[in-house]
Amino acid sequence: MTPTDPSRSTLTSAASMRVLAHPTRLRLLGLLRERGPQTAAQLGDVVDEAPGTVSYHLAKLASIDLIEPAEPQTHDRRERWWKATTPLTSWNAAELLDDPDKAAASSALQKSVGQAYAARFSDYVDSLPSLPRAWVEAGTSSDRMLHLTVDELAALTAELEAVVARYAEVSEGHGASAGTGAEPVSVVYQTYRRP
I need a labelling partner for 39 at 20 to 30 A (CA). Which of 11, 24, 30, 159 fits? Predict the structure, then answer.
């Protein structure tokens, strides 16, 4: 990995992309980012895996510096706590196109991420009847076909990233304090030229 942005882990090797492409590891990393420090047992309860299996996957994530040991959150020193090293992970698919091994690993990781997005959206759709109407009305799922140049697509992508970054700052302002009315919200957007 190449450290360039302290808020982002950038994957550059095929091996690191293959490690993260595993669906359970993607989910564990997401949980650590969402919930903060956790133990293998706590994470195992969420992903319905044995703590030993979760520990194996956590060690793999630690091997590529996506997670690291965290300060214990209880007095039980036998528990091993983990935390995410950064809030974001990225890789530059365009830079990997000339290396078949890296391109294949990037493709596998992108497909795993897409499947994780689809599963999360499916869970959301299943939960609609139990959500407050205002939250359902505030969200959206949409797509639109546009005809853009490569420069316009790049500008659209940059604008979308800037909007999300602005709301990420708002989200951080809410912190863990109760009473703000803030709830977890998923933001998934994609911009790409259709093949």
Answer: 11
